[in-house]
Specification:
Number of strands: 10
CATH class of the largest domain: Alpha Beta
Oligomer: single chain
Number of helices: 13
Mean pLDDT: 94
GO molecular function, one term: ATP binding
Low-confidence stretches: 1-14
Pfam family, one: ATP-gua_Ptrans
Strand content: 15-25%
GO biological process, one term: phosphocreatine biosynthetic process
Domain Phosphagen kinase C-terminal: 115-346
Keywords: ATP-binding, Kinase, Nucleotide-binding, Transferase
CATH architecture of the largest domain: 2-Layer Sandwich
Largest sheet: 8 strands, antiparallel
Helix content: 25-40%
Order of helices and strands: HHHHHHHEHEHHEEEHEEEHEEH
Length: 347
C-alpha cells in the first residue's frame, strides 16, 4: 500500500493523469484497502491491474484486466474508467452482439472508391477458461497456440493458409512480415511491458495468414486472438464478410469471454464491447482546412490521423462499446462517404 501511495503522489505532480490515476484518486482509502485484499480465481490482484498506470503517468488509460473477473471484482475502478473512455453509461447498458447482414453494406461510387487506398478490420477475442495474457503460464500459452492451430484446420477453403510460430520465424522473414503488416511489432510498448503482457515472450505467440494475405490471426499478442481482414481496395462488404465468417467458425470451437453489459472482454478496457477496430486509409485532395476536417470527423465518431505521406490519412472508428458491430461498420462507412464527398466538393 505504501508503494502505491508513493507512486500516486509522484503522479499527482504531473499535469496529465491517466484515467486510472484520475479515478484511483476518487477512491476512499477504505475502498483501496478492500480492493487490495481481493483476488480473482486466477490470483489476479488490484495491483496487477493498475501497475502499468503507476509506471506510465502519461498514458491514456493504464488499466489492464489480468483476467475477465477483474471487470467485476474491481469494478469500482474499472467501470468509471470504461464510462469515461467510451462515453457510455454501462450501469444500464445491455450488450448486443450483431454482425448483421454484410449484403446491406453498399459499395461506394467509382469516384469515391479511387480515394480509398486500403481497409483493415480487426476484432479481438479472449477464450473462456483462461486468464488474460499477463497471467498466462508457459503451458497455457502453448496450449492456446496448439488449440487454435487445430481449430484452423476447419475454416473455409479461402481462409486456409499457414501458421507460423514466432519463435521459429527467421529474422529476415520477421522484417518482411512486419513490413506487410501481417505480423505484430516487436514487444516495445512500455504500457504493455509494465502490464506484463510480454511475459514469456515469444513463447506461444504466432501468426496465421491465408494464401491471399487478406485474412490474418494473431495468437497471444495482446489478446488470445486478433482476427484481421484486409485489402488494398474499397470493397468493405467483402472484407467484413470474411472476418465475421472466420470468427463465427472459430466461435463454434471456442467460447469467448463475454459480459452482459461490457460485451466481449479483453486485456485492455479500451478494447472491449465489440472489440472492433476499422482502419481505412484515404487520400484526401484538399487539406487546407485541416482543423475543420478534424472537427467534422469527430461529429461522425471517426478519428483522423495524418500519416504525413502525401495527403494520406488513417481514419478509424471511435466507438467500440454501446452499439453492435454492424451498426459501427455502417456508421463508419457512411462517415467515410461523407468525408470523401466533402473533399471532392472542395474542388
Amino acid at each position: 500500500m505504501t508503494n502505491i501511495e508513493r507512486k500516486n503522489s509522484t503522479n499527482q505532480q504531473t499535469k496529465k493523469k491517466s484515467l486510472t490515476q484520475k479515478y484511483f484518486l476518487w477512491l476512499e482509502p477504505c475502498e483501496i484497502w478492500c480492493l487490495m485484499r481481493k483476488k480473482t480465481q486466477f490470483n489476479s490482484t488490484f495491483y496487477d491491474c493498475i501497475q502499468s498506470a503507476l509506471e506510465n503517468c502519461d498514458t491514456i488509460c493504464g488499466l489492464y484486466a489480468s483476467d475477465g473477473d477483474c471487470y467485476e471484482l474491481f469494478r469500482s475502478l474499472f467501470w468509471p474508467v470504461i464510462m469515461d473512455y467510451h462515453k457510455v453509461d454501462i450501469r444500464n447498458l445491455i450488450f448486443k452482439h450483431d454482425f448483421g447482414d454484410f449484403h446491406h453494406i453498399q459499395d461506394l461510387s467509382s469516384e469515391l472508391n479511387k480515394q480509398i487506398l486500403s481497409i483493415r478490420i480487426r476484432i479481438n477475442r479472449s477464450i473462456q477458461g483462461y486468464p488474460m495474457i499477463s497471467k498466462l503460464t508457459i503451458d497455457q500459452l502453448l496450449e492456446i497456440e496448439q488449440r487454435v492451430r487445430n481449430a484452423l484446420e476447419y475454416i473455409d477453403q479461402d481462409l486456409q493458409g499457414e501458421y507460423r510460430s514466432l519463435k521459429d520465424i527467421e529474422e529476415i522473414d520477421l522484417i518482411k512480415l512486419r513490413e506487410k503488416s501481417i505480423l505484430f511489432q516487436e514487444p516495445t510498448d512500455h504500457d504493455l511491458e509494465n502490464a506484463k503482457a510480454y511475459n514469456h515472450w515469444p513463447t506461444g505467440r504466432g501468426v496465421f495468414v491465408n494464401k491471399n494475405e487478406n485474412f490474418i490471426i494473431w495468437i497471444n499478442q495482446e489478446d488470445h486472438l486478433s482476427f484481421i481482414s484486409q485489402a488494398n481496395n474499397s470493397k468493405m462488404s467483402e472484407i467484413y464478410e470474411r472476418i465475421i465468417r472466420a470468427i463465427d467458425k472459430i466461435n463454434q470451437i471456442f467460447e469467448f469471454q463475454q459480459h452482459q453489459r461490457l460485451g466481449y472482454l479483453n486485456f485492455s478496457p479500451i478494447n472491449i464491447g465489440t472489440a472492433l477496430q476499422v482502419n481505412i486509409y484515404v487520400k484526401l485532395l484538399h487539406i487546407e482546412k485541416l482543423n475543420q476536417l478534424i472537427e467534422f470527423c469527430k461529429k461522425l465518431d471517426i478519428h483522423i490521423e495524418n500519416t504525413n505521406d502525401n495527403n494520406i490519412f488513417n481514419l478509424s472508428n471511435i466507438i467500440r462499446l454501446g452499439r453492435t458491430e454492424f451498426h459501427i461498420i455502417r456508421l463508419m462507412w457512411d462517415g467515410i462517404q461523407q468525408i470523401i464527398e466533402q473533399d471532392i466538393h472542395e474542388s
